[in-house]
Write a structure and sequence with these properties.
The protein contains 7 helices and 10 strands. It has 302 residues and is α+β, with helices and mostly antiparallel strands. The protein folds into 3 domains: 3-108, no CATH class; 116-222, Band 7 domain (Tetrahydropterin Synthase, Chain A); 234-286, no CATH class. The strands form 3 sheets. Strands 7, 8, 9 and 10 form a 4-stranded antiparallel beta sheet that branches. Helix 1 (21-43) runs antiparallel to helix 2 (49-70), helix 4 (156-174) runs antiparallel to helix 5 and helix 6 (224-263) packs across helix 7 (271-286). The longest helix is centred in the last third of the chain and has 40 residues, at 224-263. The radius of gyration is 40 Å and the shape is rod-shaped. It is a single-pass membrane protein. It is found in: Membrane.
Length: 302
């Protein structure tokens, strides 16, 4: 999506300025030991007013600093991210796994960037010819831009569900279910239809920072109200196609038989005898039942 077509409130993910939590953990432990040592030392001595003032001047800020450090720790698991905001302003996304630390007044919103898999419900759609069909798909998607997913749509998971349904309906109505005269059909062009569906989903989900890794139709059938009629039509088309192939083969075989008889001068055939032979051969080759030979002891003209 070009910048000219991006929504006005579109966000862009950027790296957050966070720190390693292990470094801050070492600092936290060191400061805690120093505070504990100071308390033990003060309890085992008879301090004067200056010593008490110095003790309080160190311990009170140290305890506050310990609380401040402890409040800034957070964990990021593999394939997880944390969006950082400061008083409602997006400050970046931290994708570094492990123990992390950031100033405690900065809010952290964790979001998964793992791969998700959705199997859509069966939808009833009218194909390009207006025939009602049932169609369902499987979509593998993940969050690519955490800022867009969190701040450009209200609920990115619900948004994905709705857009999957819209894309499936769009693809289902764009092509016919089947047909010999069509270049692309839902039943016969799986690779092209799946590619078109993926491109449609990527375009629709880009506003939410979601990308689609893989998708494909998992269910495709005529709606129950026309399934019987369409099945009979498919059976009729199959019978016609089989008959066409059978006739083409029979004509070739008859032509070959006549050519061989003429070349080898086996018998001289006039037009009427040739027509009779063609008729007999076509009956033998195209008939569904076994032929019964008939011996003719006369002539063709008797």
């Amino acid at each position: 999506m070009s910048d000219a077509h991006r929504p006005i409130n579109s966000s862009r993910e950027q790296a957050a300025a966070s720190m390693s939590g292990y470094v801050m953990l070492i600092a936290f432990v060191a400061l805690l030991i120093a505070v504990a040592f100071s308390i033990v030392r003060m309890a085992g001595s008879d301090p004067d007013d200056a010593a008490v003032f110095g003790f309080l001047a160190f311990v009170i800020p140290a305890v506050l600093l310990l609380v401040l450090i402890a409040a800034g720790f957070y964990m990021i698991q593999p394939n997880q991210a944390a969006a950082i905001t400061l008083f409602g302003s997006y400050r970046g996304t931290d994708r570094t796994t492990g123990l992390r630390w950031i100033w405690p007044w900065m809010m952290k919103t964790k979001i998964s960037v793992r791969t998700n898999n959705i199997l859509s419900d069966k939808l009833k759609v009218n194909d390009l010819r207006g025939n009602p069909i049932e169609i369902a798909t499987n979509v593998v998607w993940r969050v690519a831009d955490t800022a867009q997913a969190l701040y450009d749509v209200d609920d990115y998971k619900a948004f994905v569900d709705v857009q999957i349904e819209a894309a499936v309906r769009s693809i289902g109505s764009r092509y016919p279910y089947d047909g010999e005269d069509e270049d692309v059909t839902l039943r016969g062009s799986h690779a092209e239809v799946n590619t078109q569906l993926r491109e449609e989903l990527i375009a629709r989900l880009q506003v939410a920072g979601v990308t689609v890794d893989e998708c494909g139709l998992t269910h495709l059938a005529y709606a129950p109200e026309i399934a019987g009629a369409m099945l009979r039509r498919q059976q009729a088309e199959a019978v016609i196609a089989a008959r066409t192939k059978l006739v083409e083969g029979a004509v070739s075989m008859v032509e070959m038989a006549l050519d061989h008889l003429s070349e080898k001068n086996v018998v001289e055939l006039d037009d009427e005898r040739r027509a009779a032979m063609v008729s007999n051969l076509m009956v033998v080759l195209c008939g569904e039942r076994d032929t019964q030979p008939v011996v003719n002891t006369g002539t063709l003209y008797q």
